[in-house]
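Q: Sequence in, structure out?
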Amino acid sequence: MTSKALLIGATGNIGFGLLKEDVKSLFLPTSRYEVSDKKFLKLDPTNLISLKKIIEDNSINNVIILSAISKVNDCKSDPITSAKVNIEIPRRISILCNEMNIGTIFMSSEYVYNGNIKNPKSEEEKNILPLNYYGLQKYAAERQVLACNKKATVFRLPKVFHHFKKGNFLTDSISLIKNQSEIKAASDQKFSPISCYDLYNLISIAISKKIYGLYNCGGIESKSRLEFIEIIANFLKSDTKVIPSNLQDFCNDKTITPDVSMNSINLYKIFDYYPLTIKEYLHKNKINEFI
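A: Exactly. Output:
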């Protein structure tokens, strides 16, 4: 039987990119609200009766949870609502999936790490000390999802990018490079971005091989924002000057973690898959032809 995965939170930027990469027609996307795309089913993820019916009617064997309140300040200003969305809903969905003997795939965050550049993120269970409400909630949700369903997979996501739509690390960087003669970029903000192309392939592998557990899901490169923007600018043969700066020049919030780079070697080995570098992604998709 062909695998089918229900995609909850599919209207966000990551969901948009994943649907663009869905060459296997793996996903059945849902939205809390009416959308023009007829592929989408309307679903309130708090309504488990409706969720169960959709799973049964469509022979779903995995539920992927993308939906979240991900803005750090929103989680801080309304911890009750954000905890419901970020912890309680994933927990309840995971319990239902366990009762129905199907998989749960939950997207966590790089923000579970404490952002200390001196502490290398070498293993999934080391240096977990979130600095903000969002990171704390995602870490709590990881524990709940894994505890509630024996067939749960948790991907700890970094910044996820694609070239299909504005509003992600890659497209925002390209826009800056195109429209400004100089750009300031933080040399002390480090991360491990991954493309929707690679995330899609990893989800597909997790489903087909029934791989469960917790995984750092970072890209193959861990660099500063400055270094990544320089790579993109060089690929585009841009004359835009990239000026080194510090994260504090853009954000004084001490709960914004400066270094959320991840060592994802465990994922690469178990999934037998290595993501593309930023430059490889740009070449593969002929990005310079789209701008």
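The radius of gyration is 19 Å.
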